[in-house]
Structures are given as structure tokens and as C-alpha cells.
Amino acid sequence: MKTKNNMKEIASEDLSSFNGKNGNPVYIAFAGKVYDVSKSPLWSSGLHMNRHPSGKDLTGEITAAPHGSEVFERYPQVGIFKKGPTEELRHLPPWVQKPLQRFPMLRRHPHPMVVHFPIAFLMGTSLFVLLHLLFQSGSFEIVSFYLLVLGAICSPFAMVTGLLTWWVNYRLKATLFVKRKIQLSVLLLIFEIILVVWRSSNPGISNPIYFALMLLLTPVVILLGYYGGQMTFPPER
Fold it and tell me: What topology is assigned to 9-90 in CATH?
């Protein structure tokens, strides 16, 4: 079927066959339009950034992407997308689908926006503990404690938004990286609570185990970042 602009209507089930496989061109839909991106080197395999598949309506993903819709000016429009139910959100209850459709950035951005705060605070905690141990300055130790408290406050928000991202974008699929992130996140939060309580009840603390745990925060944070990176930008196979 063609529209009044002589553009062919392409339904979701038809669009899925244009995925770059078996010699087929690479089509994607955005904002009700279907584009042929076969000539883009970033879509040559039919998979963009090793994450976004072709042959689908990627309006939500692109709206939340770091680039704008101007990228489509480089590629020909080949049809009008006949929109059906949003496939990527079908596994979610309606009360979750509605805000995600209205504000696509909520699908991708909350966790990356929040997670940098505990990362910075906790790595800063270890840094100032190290400075305290090197220079025996009480001021460095006090700063490390304040950073620890800030990290402990921010960590639950990072965990909640991470779980939301896992639910929305990964359908709660328990991959190895997800399991490791959950385990390390819980471990990190336990460390934070223990250290905050311990230091609060012992202002002049000099226990080497306390300082060792404070220094251990950074390796745990780095591992969490590594597993998160593996999920977001999986290596080429």
C-alpha cells in the first residue's frame, strides 16, 4: 500500500526482513519514516554499535542517543512505517510503558546520569585515605569520611536505576555480567554501611582494617564499571 506521497507503507513484520542478512538492505524506522542505511559503515553488519538491530523501529533508542535525527539527512527515505505496538516495551506493564514512550530518555539515561556520582565519591574516598596514610593528616581522613557518606547516599539511587535499566532494556536476563554487577553492588553497599557506622562511632579511628576496606572501595568500583561497560559496549565476536 502506498500513501498519498507515493511512499510505500512498511509494517513491522515486513521491516524485520530488512536486516542486512542474506543480501537484504538495512532499513530502520524513525519517527514514522523508514530509512535505508545500507551505505553507512556503522550499519554494515545490520547491528549498530554492536547493540541496536536493524529492521526495527528505533525511535526510542535514537531519541535517547547522543546524536540527533539530523543523521538521517544522509540516507534516503524508502517508506512510511506502519506503526504497531512498541515491540521493545511489550514486556513491561502499561503503567511503565506510558512514561517511557512519552519520555524516551528514561529508557537509557537515568542510570548513566546517576552512577557517576558514587563512582567519583568512592574513588575519592580511597584517594584521600591514601593521602592520609602517606602524610598522616587528619584533614585528609575527614574528607575521606565525608566522601564515603556521599557515596553511600548515592549508591542506592545508582542501584535502583540500574535495576530499572536491566528490566526495561535487558528484560531481566540474568547474564554473567548482570550477576557480577548485582553481587558487587550489594557488596559495595554493605561495605559502605559498615564503614560509615564504624567511623561514626569511632571519630579518631586508626584501625588498619578500616583503612584497608576504604582502599578496597576503588577496585570494587572499577570492577563494577568494567562489567557495566561490557554490557553497554559488548566486544566484537
Answer: Flavocytochrome B2; Chain A, domain 1 (3.10.120)
